[in-house]
Amino acid sequence: MKNLWTQKEAKIYSKNDLSLRVYSSRLLGRNPELVLHGGGNTSVKGQYKNIFGETIETLFIKGSGWDLISIEEDGFAPVDLNYLIRLAQLNKLTDSQMVVEQKLATLKPSAPNPSVEAILHALIPHKFVDHTHADAVLSITNTPNGRKKINQIYDKDILIVPYVMPGFILAKKIAELTKNIDWNTLTGMILLNHGVFSFGTDAKTSYDRMINIVSKAEEYLKSEKVWRKYEKSTSKPDLLTLARIRKKASEMTGKACLARLNDSSEAVGFSKMEAAKNLCLKGTLTPDHVIRTKPFAWIIKDDLAASAKDFIKRYDAYFQKNKSKGITKLDNGPKWALWPRYGTVCFGTSKKQAQIVSDINRHTLRAMQSSFNMDNWKPISFRDLFDVEYWELEQAKLKKDNQPPEFQGKIAIITGAASGIGNACARKLLENGCVVVGLDKNRKVAGLFDEFNDYKGLYCNLTKTADIKKAVSSCVKEFGGIDILVSNAGVFSSSANLESIDDKKWKQDLDINLSTHHRILRECIPYLKLGIDPAIIFMGSRNVGAPGPGAGTYTIAKSGLTQMSRLAAIELSKYNIRVNIVHPDCVYDTDVWSDKILKSRAKQYGLSVSEYKRRNLLKTDVSSADVAELVAFFASAKSSKTTGAQIPIDGGNDRII
Q1: In the predicted model, what is the mean pLDDT of the chain?
Q2: Distance CA 492, CA 512 (A)
Q3: How many whole angstroms separate alpha carbon 360 and alpha carbon 262?
């Protein structure tokens, strides 16, 4: 394992011990083979001065909710060290009591909750303490003869600790094991089936020791020739089947979720192994992962419904066997699935959640194969995994009344997302938890909405069927399906009376404002049939009900679109796909309305530009955000009984009324 420490970089963080603690923590976080997504924890012992100028011996330990890769000084909770040591002397302490006591001992009210391993870090007398879930070490300990192998690899400066539940119980166990041991003779600890600790008098020493410990495990795995390289995958999964998998997983979970396919060479190669199914049913890489991944995978079979029943039956049996009084059962949904011949599929209610499960899954697959090729894959027992998955601290989270965002787990495609109404629709859905794939021929669409993790922008020329097919496939492969289609893209072309419209203008205008809507609809329908409460919203125009002179091709195209929407509502109703159309007007914060077009249209009506912009009955502006509100309504459960509707959002038009 490469040591990432550099003197040049360390110098930037050399102002104090806590700053160096930040630096070496980030070095650990940079390596996903050591920690993933909030995993691991680090600490440094120092002093804290209160308002009276009194010095308190303090443990600065990583707080909950922080990732090592990006941690700041504020991410370390300052906790009264002696208070923690006194807690360790208690005979019994529940985890919920421990969390309360640790918070009481925290010297800064705004600090995050200290790690559940704070008491253990306090008991280790070294100044710097590092804890990771190193893949290489776990690959060795998660075998039937793991302890024996570890004893062969390491010298007596590494303490070997049998698996016990993290938290207070682990702290008490290590206190017992080290009762007659001089800590200065130790450089680290290996917690079987759990992870690695290293420590030292300074940040570099503790970090170096961690790298050395893990490197020895890697060298052992290399000598055992357990790592296998796979040829480039030629797997071509059927994306409609992926959409079916995603829908079934959502049904099992009881809420919409995303499905992220991993069809890398390694994942596909693993899925083809004869032993793969058995390995995926045995447990997790480290106990911490069970909260993210559940104890085993869903094994997908050709009969999807039957395989779903198998998973639910297996999970229910696991719960019934290990449950105790007062425990609330989690949902029956899988967190990841083995898709034989095609790789793995990971589930989550957001892009971030699905990505976390996917990252854990990739590392778990490699560890499974390493353990299997070396001996066999044998992680901790389901009884022990259950204790972590149904930890009282995790159960407490279930009791909090947290209402998820309205569109959490849903997937939308929005055309014309780079600006105007399409952009406003994308923002509205993103703000309410939806994953949005924005399509536009303006390439800036790819760089929008940096503040939202659930957005993906794709260049797409909607006049080209190949572009649309590619965009739709990209959406389904990354997220698992389509639930919402907002077919918005269009242009308001230059004004011309019917007698002046030549063949070229007629063809171009109708292609953009009508035919492109059919193309995107045609490609999305097969996936919408498999969507979660699927909905289609077309962007019409006030011109449909009240055509204006000189807007011939635009009006005719939007009228055709309205008729197509009505027909789609009829044809798709048997699949429970709702189809509605909105008719905006007086929406001038879009790229459609250039100064030139505004002047031209105002002239057609004999009005000034200002008068033209407020020619509706309410004498008001209609913004793109206003239209987005209506689109979100049609995409939501609030309109679950409505299809085939045409709703104006135009400030009122006397000709239509």
Answers
A1: 94
A2: 10
A3: 12
Q: Tokens 């070229």 label which residue?
A: 504
β-sheet bridge partners, residue 436: 412, 455
User: Between vectors from CA 480 to CA 474 and to CA 481, what angle results, nearest 5°?
Assistant: 85
The answer to whether 585 and 650 are in contact (CB under 8 A) is: yes
- Is the pTM higher than 0.90? The answer reads yes
Give a three-class secondary structure readout of 57-79: EEEEEEECCCCHHHCCHHHEEEE
Closest listed residue to residue 623, CA positions, set 608, 613, 635:
613
* Structure confidence by residue, pLDDT tens digits, 461-513: 999 999 999 999 999 999 999 999 999 998 877 778 888 888 998 898 899 99
| Strand bridging mode 158-161 / 578-584 | unpaired
Residue 399 has a pLDDT of: 63
Amino acid letter, residue 279: L
Residues in a beta bridge with 61: 43, 77
Alpha-carbon gap, residue 552 to 509, rounded angstroms:
10
Query: C-alpha 333: how far from its chain's center?
Result: 16
**Residue 596 corresponds to which tokens in the numbers above?**
């030139």
User: DSSP class of residue 515?
Assistant: I
Q: 560: part of which helix (H) or strand (E)?
A: helix 552-572
- Please check whether residue 65 is in contact with residue 37, taking contact to mean a CB–CB distance below 8 angstroms: no
* pLDDT tens-digit series, residues 572-630: 999 999 999 999 988 888 776 778 888 887 888 888 888 888 888 998 889 999 999 99
Instruction: Provide the pLDDT for residue 614.
Output: 80
- What are φ and ψ of residue 163, in 5° steps? -65, 130
CA torsion, ordered 210, 211, 213, 215, to nearest 10 deg: 160
Beta bridge partners of 581: 538, 646
Q: How far apart are CA 199 and CA 424, in angstroms?
A: 52
DSSP 432-468: TT-EEEEEESSGGGGG--TT-TTEEEEE--TT-HHHH
C-alpha–C-alpha distance, residues 223 and 67, integer Å: 33
| Contact partners, residue 651, CB within 8 Å, separation at least 6 | 585, 586, 614, 616, 617, 618, 619, 620, 621, 622
- Helices (H) and strands (E) counted in the chain, each on its own, are 25, 18
Task: Give yes or no for a contact between 557 and 544, defined as CB atoms under 8 angstroms apart.
Answer: no
Beta-carbon contacts of 582 under 8 Å, excluding residues fewer than 6 positions away, are: 537, 538, 539, 540, 627, 630, 631, 634, 646, 647, 648, 649
* Whether 197 contacts 191, CB under 8 Å: yes
CB 339 within 8 A of CB 300: yes
Q: Which domains does the chain have, with CATH numbers?
A: 7-223 (3.40.225.10), 239-398 (3.40.225.10), 411-590+623-649 (3.40.50.720)
- In degrees, rounded to 5, the angle at the alpha carbon of residue 625 between the alpha carbons of residues 621 and 627 is 80
**Contact of 632 with 410, CB cutoff 8 Å:** no
DSSP 101-132: HHHHTBS-TTSPPBPTTHHHHHHS-SSEEEEE
pLDDT the model gives residue 603:
87
Nearest to 137 by CA among 92, 187, 195, 79: 195
